Amino acid sequence: DKKIRLNVGGAHFETRLSTLKRHPNTLLGSEEREYFYNDDTNEYFFDRDPDIFRLVLGYYQTGKLHYVNQECISMYDDELTFFRIPASEIGDCCYADYEENRELVKLRTMIDSFHRCHFFNPTLMSMRERLWRKLSYDVTVTGFWMSPPTVIMTFVVLICTILAIMETVPCGTFDGRPDSKRCGEEYKNLFFYLDTSCVTIFTCEYLLRLYAAPNRTAFAKSCRSLIDIVAVMPYYLGNIIGSKSLLGSFQTVRVVRFLRVFYYSKGLYILFRTLQSVAMEMGFFLISLSVTIILFSTIMYYMEKAFAFGTFTSIPATFWFAIETMTTTGYGDLVPQSYMGKFIGGVCCISGILLITLPVSITVSNFSRLYHQ
């Protein structure tokens, strides 16, 4: 078996020809490598990065392509493209880190794209650019209280949240008992004017960001834009329709306004990105949790249905027992009567503890990695 020498950026590597031919669709595994052969030195010369090439050569030797988290993702992709190795060959042990770094690069590229674009009308570019920089909340770069618009909008969000809470509080007393009338009904005009002011500020801010956005279509379809629309729609729909029952339903949606704090807090933004990065694992966890709940609910129902005064009236009704037992809440409203039912309840509790702790380590490690990045 022929041994060949590879000179990559001044660093020398040696391997066997049969090792490279394991992947014939790549540059080194095909005959195209002969274009890089140097007759004088009797070696193949590649003017590429030698550090990343160690990972490339490891792919030929072991059949597994790894990614080191400290490597520049752009340089790594360039090397893979040059040697014609698809990114899908990255091993499961490293693929999550690779995808996460690619998403971060895409995010930073999107944020910086406005600063390099020149498709605006020259007479409007400077004004729109300044407006976008003022109103776009780049939590990946800035902290919590970094600009006046951030402070103002955070204050407005807190005011809206306090209003939504305080309007449900009973106001005053009658004969020593709490009055049935809520503050939202007692001071209806005050709450209406304050809510109108907050919605007006939200609406103006949204329209200004829509006007200044580099890509208005992409901005209108973004998750942030949808949250902004849902946050103000209950106010407009409730006042247009005028139905009290529908208005009460719309009021519950106002809690979406509090999600806007994700725009301004770096920590909350990292938490949101963490949940995105573990979406696949959380999906698997929810499926496993659902199967376990159905399993224990079915067993518990058939164990307890023989009791005349039992509270386990059906399998769906027993779901609540399985949920509160697996989460170690234990309200005590559903209690098994038989010895076998109590044993199944104990197994259900232990199983819930073991199952729920599984995604915790993954979530914490991803949060720590994103926070340091």
From TrEMBL:
GO terms for cellular component: voltage-gated potassium channel complex. It is found in: Membrane. GO terms for biological process: protein homooligomerization. SUPFAM superfamilies: POZ domain, Voltage-gated potassium channels. The chain crosses the membrane at residues 135-166, 190-208, 229-250, 270-299, 306-323, 343-364. GO terms for molecular function: voltage-gated potassium channel activity. The keyword tRNA-binding does not apply. This is BTB domain-containing protein. The lineage of its organism: Eukaryota, Metazoa, Chordata, Cephalochordata, Leptocardii. Its main location: membrane.
